[in-house]
Design brief:
The complex is a heterodimer of chains A (about 270) and B (about 200).
Chain A: H1 9-17, H2 20-28, H3 34-61, H4 64-85, H5 90-117, H6 125-156, H7 158-167, H8 171-196, H9 204-211, H10 216-249
Helix pairs in contact in A: 4-5, 4-6, 5-6, 5-10, 6-8, 6-10, 7-8, 8-10, 9-10
Chain B: E1 2-13, E2 16-27, E3 31-35, H1 43-49, E4 57-62, E5 65-66, H2 71-75, E6 78-81, H3 92-101, H4 111-120, H5 137-151, E7 155-159, H6 167-178, E8 183-188, E9 198-201
Parallel strand pairs in B: 3-8, 3-9, 6-7, 7-8
Antiparallel strand pairs in B: 1-2, 1-4, 4-5
Helix pairs in contact in B: 4-5
Classes of the chains: A mainly alpha (about 270), B alpha/beta (about 200).
Chain lengths: ~270, ~200
């Protein structure tokens, strides 16, 4: 592999020159977004630089315990952001959802690194961070869609559930339609994404590998494998997330607990 | 023996008191009707019996046992008609099939008994193939009444069962209910219920 051509510091600054274009546009159209826009650019730059420094450090040491610790940090952050975006109570859902994401990320990473790539240390920093990051980033979105959809629907359809319970449905029987619908709503974009890939857009992983000098064949094999892994990981994590969260959400009498959502109270 | 007992029960609905220190003994096969204007939260009484609404004070007993300790089994004793009849998406026949498939529903129906019910409620047979959501309010109510009659559990718990029925169908249903060997608890703002039903006023 010849490796990627590094971007010189001056050339790197030149990329910021491009920002003049949106700046001018928003100035003339008086869009009043210059402030927000500058903050975002600044945050992105600072965060990525910090991560860059941190990754250099992680890769240099490539220490098993450190890598495992970083794996846990990634999973915990993913758990926080899912619960936050899904408007759920952190106290009740932190453990079940983080556990679901963690189990999924670990299983997929282990399979991917050990079976597909064939490295013996599945926690090797370079591969672990890339694969787990890719998987978590993607299942994050599907978990948020599913949880939003599921809790919205069971609150809207509370009377339907009560009717079904009274008719003799078990908890699972009365929630089956809501479970089906919320899982489908999250998997649909993943499936659509797989069908348009390569033609509509070139995903970041593929682009990155091609730029770093890998043969397009290698890049494409990685991309296909990672797309499959993302789809499988979405399915596993949605099933786990829902079954763990449902346990937290209903009491023994099959009543929906009143204190599971933030900002919304219902009776 | 007393079947269902309300022991100094206070129920609130939407912050307002609906029943206060309410005492009532329901014997087997009694027919009770809770009456009151619409909009005061009468349905909450039914929700409380089903254990979906908390009692403010007091106890409800079924055969001397407090229901809140065994709600899941207690619920199975009801043929329940909800007030909000928008409870299903799918074909009418699939509603029957789904409920029959529930682990604890014990819904048994055959074509003959279903046909008989359709005839009683003056519904065409092809209603079974229609989408439940496309039915009129009256048709939905009739379909769910059929379900309640087919379930034939010991206690009928009917929330506004005549609200969407025309006058002659209303009388037909009331007549059928009063002749049944079942405990019947009705919530209604309708005045057409006769003296076979013990009337209890709710609200002021």
């Amino acid at each position: 592999m010849e490796g990627t051509i590094d971007i010189t510091n001056i050339a790197f600054l030149a990329s910021f020159l491009l920002l003049l274009i949106p700046l001018l546009i928003s100035h003339f159209l008086k869009l009043k977004i210059i402030k927000e826009f500058s903050i975002s650019i600044f945050r992105m730059t600072a965060q990525l630089f910090l991560v860059g420094i941190f990754l250099v450090f992680l890769f240099d040491y490539n220490n098993l315990l450190l890598n495992i610790a970083w794996f846990l940090v990634m999973v915990i952050f993913a758990g926080f952001s899912v619960i936050n975006a899904a408007n759920l109570k952190l106290k009740k859902f932190f453990f079940p959802i983080t556990l679901s994401l963690g189990i999924t990320a670990f299983l997929m990473m282990a399979y991917f690194n050990y079976v597909i790539i064939g490295i013996s240390n599945i926690f090797d920093a370079r591969y672990m961070i890339a694969i787990v990051g890719m998987i978590l980033g993607n299942i994050l979105r599907s978990n948020i869609i599913t949880l939003n959809n599921f809790y919205d629907s069971i609150i809207k359809e509370k009377e339907i559930m009560q009717f079904k319970f009274t008719m003799g449905a078990t908890l699972y029987e009365s929630l089956k339609q809501n479970i089906d619908r919320s899982i489908k709503s999250a998997l649909k974009p993943v499936i659509a994404n797989m069908a348009t890939i390569g033609i509509v857009f070139l995903p970041g992983m593929l682009t990155g590998q091609i730029l770093s000098g890998a043969s397009p064949y290698t890049a494409i094999k990685y991309q296909i494998a990672i797309m499959i892994a993302i789809f499988v990981a979405s399915s596993i994590s949605l099933a786990l997330t829902l079954s763990f969260s449902i346990k937290q959400s209903f009491d023994k009498q099959m009543g929906l607990k009143g204190d599971i959502l933030n900002n919304k109270f219902y009776n | 023996m007393v079947y269902i007992r309300f022991e100094e029960v206070t129920i609130k609905a939407g912050g307002k008191i609906l029943l206060k220190d309410f005492i009532l003994d329901i014997e087997k096969n009694d027919k009770i009707i809770f009456m009151g204007k619409s909009g005061i939260g009468k349905s909450t009484i039914i929700k409380t019996l089903l254990g979906f609404h908390q009692i403010e004070k007091g106890k409800i007993l079924f055969r001397n046992k407090e229901i809140k300790n065994d709600l899941i089994n207690f619920r199975k004793k009801f043929s329940y008609l909800p007030q909000n009849t928008n409870i299903y998406q799918g074909k009418v026949i699939e509603l029957f099939q789904e409920i029959a498939s529930y682990k604890n529903s014990k819904l048994l129906y055959d074509q003959k008994s279903l046909d008989k019910e359709l005839k009683f409620f003056e519904l065409e047979k092809d209603i079974l193939k229609k989408d439940f959501t496309s039915l009129s309010g009256g048709e939905k109510q009739k379909t769910l009444l059929i379900l309640a009659f087919l379930l034939a559990r010991g206690i009928f718990l009917l929330d506004e069962p005549t609200a969407s029925l025309d006058a002659s169908m209303k009388n037909k249903v009331i007549k059928r209910l009063e002749g049944m060997n079942s405990t019947i608890i009705v919530i209604s703002h309708d005045k057409g219920w006769n003296n076979k039903f013990k009337k209890i006023k709710v609200g002021k």
